[in-house]
Each structure stands twice: as structure tokens, then as C-alpha cells.
Amino acid sequence: MIEDRDYRQYHIDLSRNLVEDARAAVIPGAPERAELIASGLENPQKIASHRGLDSWLGRLEGYPVLVTNTGMGGPTTEIVVQELIQLGVTVFLRIGTTGAIRPEIPVGSLVISEAAIRLDGTSDHYAPPCYPAVADFELTEALKRRAKNAGASYISGITVSSATFYPGQERYDSASGYVQRSFRGSLEEWRALGALNYEMESGALFTMCRTMGLRAGCICAVVANRAQSEKVVRDVIRKAEEQAATIGLRALADILISG
Ligand code: URA
Predict the structure, then answer these.
(1) What's the rounded Cα separation, in Å, for the pair 238 and 157?
(2) 71: helix, coil or strand?
(3) Residue of the nearest CA to atom 1 in ligand 1?
(4) Whole-structure pTM over 0.90, yes or no?
(5) Is the CB of 107 under 6 A from ligand 1?
(6) 96 lines ligand 1 (CB under 6 A)
(7) How many CB atoms lie within 10 A of CB 144?
(8) Which residue stretches of the chain are H helix?
(9) d(CA 229, CA 169)
(10) Cα–Cα distance between 143 and 151 in angstroms, integer?
(11) How far is CA 13 from the centre of its chain?
């Protein structure tokens, strides 16, 4: 932990004084989603904006809570999570978007990740490939409970966390249309092995947090159903993100209150 309370972390431009000893951070990918999530906190203030990484500070049941967007993928997630840990954050909640790989998971519903298949690359710098990327049990249970109470359409289970949006998620609608042999048929295989969805950050997040004894959870809005199409369905995004944000903040409050 950084001793100098005014020292600003290189990428996120936050100091311990600025974050007011917040223990919890919500980490969406997109800056617009950070603003949306922050609007669900009491008295949200934008406290930094640097390199496309926006940070907000507000209160949840009286506890200081940060919202910082990570950008897309493992490498920027690693940077943001590292620097927040150095400022004293111990609980992380990713609120993101995802592509479902099972036909029965509708666009607009939610996926709560219990663990991640580590195709992200970044987590290899923290632990060997046999190390499991597992979410915090209590935070995950709180997410499920709050999703159920809200009457949300949700599913929980194993997520494939990919380093790339295109070949790693076996998308053929890319610049070259080429998917290397090792990924051809991979979507079908992950589905056969019981995985639910693709996203790009939970592998790094869960591995980092587990190796350091910290807590992490992940809830995502489904914006594509890969059993039907490679396309993202844009008009469901806002509503599903709002629902994920409401459920996520309630679950985080449960964790903060229970200590
Ligand atoms: N994010 C992903 O990584 N994949 C999708 O299909 C949608 C969102």
C-alpha cells in the first residue's frame, strides 16, 4: 500500500486522499457505464479522468465506493486493478457486457460469473495456467440473491474470458475473416463443456484477486447471443446495463454492510 497519501497512481491519477479510503470499487469497461453506475451512488463526484480512465467517488449505505472504468480487455484491467489495490481497495465488482454462447440465454438478460476460463493472456503473468480464476463466493451469492429479488432474467456459471473480441471468441465477421485453427470450433467446445458466455476481463480480475486474497465478482448484461448471431444488439444495452448496475450496487452494499 502507498504511504504518501497524495501520491497519484500513474495511470488512474488517483491518490489515497482522493479515494477517501474506499475499500470497494465497481469496474465497468466503458467510461459511459462508469457514469451510469456512479449515478446510483449517493453524492457521486468525478475525481479523475486520465488516459480514458474515468473515476467517480460516491457513497453506498454510507461507505465510500469508487467507480473506475477499465477499458477493454485484460491488460488495461490489470493496470486499473493493480493501482486500485495499491490505494487500499479490497473488493472489486465488474459490471460489464457479454456475448452468450448458449441458445437459451436471451439478449438483455444477465450473466453472473462464478469462475472464468483463462483465455485472457494477462492472468498468465500472475499465476500458472492450472491456477483457477474463481470469483468471491459471498459477493457472487449476493449478486444472485439480488438478481432473483429484482425478478431479473439471469444465469450463473462459468465464463470464457478471452484476450480478443474476434478470433478468441471465434468471430468470423473480422477484417480478415480468418480464425486460426486452434480457435475454430472452440465456441461449440466451450458450450459442450458447460460455459455460458464470452467476455474479456474476468479472467485477469479473478486471478489477480484470488492470488492476493482479495474479493471480486462479475455481472454482465448480455448484448449478443452467439448461438444466433455474431452481431451485438445495440438497443438492449442501456436497459440491461441499468439493471446490472442496480443489482450490482445492491449486492455490493450487502457485502460492505456484512463486513
Ligand atoms: N463482450 C464480449 O467480449 N463479447 C461479446 O460478444 C459481447 C461483449
Answers:
(1) 23
(2) coil
(3) 98
(4) yes
(5) no
(6) no
(7) 20
(8) 16-19, 31-38, 74-86, 137-149, 186-192, 202-211, 237-258
(9) 12
(10) 12
(11) 21
What is d(CA 156, CA 40) in angstroms, rounded to the nearest whole number?
Answer: 24
Q: The C-alpha cell of 80 is what?
A: 486499473
* pLDDT string in tens for the chain (259-residue length): 778 999 999 999 999 999 999 999 999 999 999 999 999 999 999 999 999 999 999 999 999 999 999 999 999 999 999 999 999 999 999 999 999 999 999 999 999 999 999 999 999 999 999 999 999 999 999 999 999 999 999 999 999 999 999 999 999 999 999 999 999 999 999 999 999 999 999 999 999 999 999 999 999 999 999 999 999 988 888 999 999 999 999 999 999 999 8
Active site residues: 11, 83, 171, 226
List, in order of start, the domains of the chain with CATH numbers: 16-258 (3.40.50.1580)
Compute the half-sphere exposure of residue 8: CA atoms within 13 Å on the CB side of its CA: 11
Distance CA 33, CA 241 (A): 8
